[in-house]
C-alpha cells in the first residue's frame, strides 16, 4: 500500500513538473498588418513548407477571428492585442485624434519630453504584467516599422521599442526607455536600416528580431521573455500594378519566406518547446476602390461642409454662436462652454444634431456621446471603439461604398462593413494542431498568453483564455 501510494505521489509530481516545464520561456507575438485569410488560401500553393504552411499545419488555428470594435486602424488594433481590451478602456482610439482642449491633432505615441512614449496607453499590456510578475527580470521588446506599432506592442515597462525612421532609413528608439537602454542598439543607429542585402522591409524587421533575441539573451533562462514583432502584408506604396492579384501574390510569397526563416531560426536558437508563437492580423484593409468606375452605388460625404451647415442649423434654433468647435475623421466636437453659457441642454443639442445629420445623403447612422454611453449592448462594437476623453461628441457612419472626405485636411476613407477574414494561430510550446471555427475576438489573446506563462492578464482585460 505504501509502495502504491509512493508511486502515485511520484506520478503526480512528475505530471506537475512536466506541466511547469511546458510554460514557454519566450513568447513571440507576430502581428501582420492587413493579413487576410482569403489571400493565405489563394497563395498557399506558392508557400514554402516552413512558413505559413508550418504554422497552419501544426498550430492551434482559430479561423474566424475579429476585432470587438469599429473602426479599426493599426494603432487601435495593436493596442488591443497587447492589452486584451478595447479603446474604450485602453484609450488608443486611432493613430491620431483631436485634443479636446487645444483642438490640435494628437499622435497616439507623441510625448513632449521623450518625443515618443506609451503615455496615452491607459492600461497595462501583457509585457507590463510580465515585468511586474518577474520583478523586472523578464525581457520585453517591441519591433516594428513605425513608432506606434513598436511602442504600443512593447508597453510601458519594456526594455525597449525599436522601429525604422522611414525618412532617415535609420533604426530609432525612445528616451522613454532610457533607464533600460541597450548599448548594442546604438551600434545600429548609424547604419542604414534597409540596404541592398534585404529584399523587403519585413526581412529587415525579422533580422532585427533575431539579433535582439540573441544579443539580449532572450529565452535562455527560466524567466519568460516577450518579443512583439509587427510585419506587413500590405501592397508596397507607390508600386501599384494593373493586376492586384499578381501584386499581392508577390507580397505574400516574400512574407512567407521571411516568416519561415524567422520561425526556424528562433526554434534553432531557443528550442521549439521553449517558444510560444502567436500570429494574427490587424484586421484591417486599406483597399479603396473607385466604385463609381464600376457603376457600384457610391458617393462622397464632406465632413467639413456638413459641420458648417450643422453650425448654421444650431444657430437658427438656439441663437447665433460657434456650436461646432471642430471636426476630425468622422467625428464632430461641440462647444460645451457655449452650450453651458447659453444654459442649453446638451441632450437637446445632441438630438438636434442627430436629426439634421441623419438626413444627409450617404449617412447610415449618427452616434452621439449620450447614445453610446447609455447603450446596453446593441451598439457594442461602436462603443468599444469610443473613448469619452478622446472621441468626438458625434460620430458619423457613412453608408458602405461611400467616401468620407475632409477637403481641408485632404483626408479620405471609404466605408466598408464587409468582414475581413483573418486567423489567430498559436504554435510551439507543446501545442497540438487543431482548427477551430467558433468565432472569437482578438482580446482573448492576451489572457491566453497570460495563462500559458502563469501570470495575471493585463489590468483592463476581462476576457477568458482560449485554452
UniProtKB/TrEMBL annotation:
Q: Signal peptide location in the record? A: none
Source organism's superkingdom? Answer: Bacteria
> Which residues span the membrane?
none
Task: List, alphabetically, the InterPro entries matched.
Answer: Alkaline_phosphatase_core_sf, Alkaline_phosphatase_prok, Phosphodiest/P_Trfase
Task: Tell me the organism.
Answer: Segatella baroniae F0067
One Gene Ontology molecular-function label: alkaline phosphatase activity
The name this protein carries in UniProt is Type I phosphodiesterase/nucleotide pyrophosphatase
Q: Which Gene3D superfamilies match?
A: 3.30.1360.150, Alkaline Phosphatase, subunit A (3.40.720.10)
